[in-house]
Amino acid sequence: MTSFAASNLQTLTRAERVAIAEQWSEAPLLDAETLSGTFWQLSDLNGRQLAPFLVLAPEGLIGNVFHGSLDHWYVANGNLCILDSQGVPTIVFTAARVVNSAVVALAGHAILAGVEAVYILTLVDHPPHPVSPTPSHMERRARFIKQPPAEARRANLVVVRANGSSLHPRWFDGLDDKTRTWDLCVSWYGSEIPDASVSPEYLTHAPNQRKFKPIFDLFYDDSPLWNYDRIWLPDDDLLCSGSDLNRMFHLSRKYGLDLAQPSLRQEAGCHINHPITAQRQGGDVRFEPFVEIMCPLFSRRALRICIASIKDAVSGYGLDHLWPSFLGRPATRMGIIDAVGIVHTRPIGASYDVRSAIAEQAGLWQSYGFQYRPIPGVN
After folding, report:
1. What is the extent of the structural domain holding 259?
2. Mean per-residue pLDDT for 51-76?
3. From edge to edge, which strands make up the β-sheet containing 115-123?
4. Are 115 and 155 part of one and the same domain?
5. Quick one: 150 and 118 in the same domain?
6. Of all helices (H) and strands (E), which one includes residue 261?
7. Which superkingdom, per the lineage (predicted)?
8. What is the CATH number of the domain that holds 44?
9. What percentage of residues in the chain have a pLDDT greater than 70?
């Protein structure tokens, strides 16, 4: 099977790139498993760009591009095919450019929005962060102070940035090692060297940094953290019990959720940023198009698609709109888990400059070509 690897292009000279641009051949046989979760730029042969960042999302959804002519993807007879909203094929990609045994571009003839042309998908990476990008040559990889043996891993993982005032010790309430279904990874942000007792499983030290950059550094290519089915990335000011977390992971798996979060209790001392996340009685899971950056729960395949978006994030503003977009806004694989209510103990904006965060969001959305749409219940 021909692989997909945008990083292969980094080894080519400009002259080699120009030469390759002129080399098209019949597309090799492809399969849906290999294509799922890959990132592309869509343009036509004349250089007109239609989408700077398109995701071939799981289950045939098309992420970050929402157009009636580009509604669904699948593989037929080894070719990538795009269907419109009526289920009619609009593009069949029959030609390819191959570099170092990797497909880096696909082409097919179609009529989109009344324009007949040859349309080209070019393999891309997540764009650099608009405010504070890491140089492309710089490796980012966390070092674990402590980690469990591979045979002792549980099915689920909680990753939290913590210091001495973190509430994460309360998350063990009501559980013991036999009944807990999740492992814990603590990324310590205090300046002092953390004691090994702050986490029973994984521990790393990344002092004086905000939430997302050190979390990205934990998920390098062969990180042991990729060996979990479900991964929760909460803030450290959330109050909940161990049984709450067991149930959250269980319902996420039971309902096949790629992106979810626990609901927020409607009680004194719980700071609710968006009404959509407030707990509602009477159900387990409520399918919704929004999950807050404060406590996202990912399936492994969803986190692989979204992880690079947090690489250089400062505030994280805007990520909770990008993630559903990357996943193709899955109507029945995203939601709020009402059966689990937690308490958010700290108000929004307590530890960063909101004006700078909003500017970061605007730059981030522009770099992805993301088109914002209002969501009822999201402020």
Report:
1. 144-368
2. 97
3. 25-26, 95-99, 102-112, 115-123, 38-44, 49-56, 62-63
4. no
5. no
6. strand 259-264
7. Bacteria
8. 2.40.128
9. 93
